[in-house]
Design goal:
By secondary structure, the chain is of the alpha/beta class. It folds into two domains: 1-64, 2,3-Dihydroxybiphenyl 1,2-Dioxygenase, domain 1 (Roll), CATH 3.10.180.10; 76-134, 2,3-Dihydroxybiphenyl 1,2-Dioxygenase, domain 1, CATH 3.10.180. The chain has helices at 19-29, 90-99, and strands spanning 11-15, 33-39, 44-51, 54-61, 82-86, 104-112, 115-121, 127-133. 16% of the residues are buried.
């Protein structure tokens, strides 16, 4: 038997080095809604931002974890390497990210007829893909 889903999206936890820098990217630059800050068991803060019905949980721990995810984007290692946000304003968003000082790893481009992407690096080096259809 498969999962009986209670929500049409996932919640994604991202451990970050600096919660304020993460909020500057996800809330201020991308315009995602910041809904709450909650304490983490064992020490830390979870900054909660909404991306549609997906909850991004930006977790800053009181003590840094012993390891970092390997760099290199999609080809750098196995495991979760990027996530995709579907948007209606790809060019404008990629420009805003670049203007704000974030690395635009893949400038807006067509990947197949009717589908365009851009990939931006967040403050912790995570790859965020933006996709626009139509």
């Amino acid at each position: 038997m498969g999962a009986s889903l209670a929500k049409d999206s996932i919640d994604l936890g991202i451990v970050v080095k600096d919660g304020q820098k993460a909020l500057a990217f996800y809330r201020d630059t991308l315009g995602l809604e910041h809904v709450a800050d909650t304490p983490m068991p064992g020490g830390g803060t979870m900054h909660r931002v909404m991306c549609g019905t997906t909850l991004l949980k930006l977790v800053q721990l009181d003590s840094a974890p012993p390891a970092e995810a390997p760099a290199g984007g999609i080809r750098g290692a196995t495991g979760y390497r990027y996530f995709t946000i579907s948007v209606l304003n790809l060019d404008e968003l990629a420009d805003a990210c670049g203007t704000a000082g974030y690395k635009v790893l893949v400038s807006p481009r067509d990947i197949r007829p009717g589908v365009r992407i851009a990939i931006v690096e967040d403050p912790d080096g995570n790859n965020v893909e933006f996709l626009q259809q139509g």
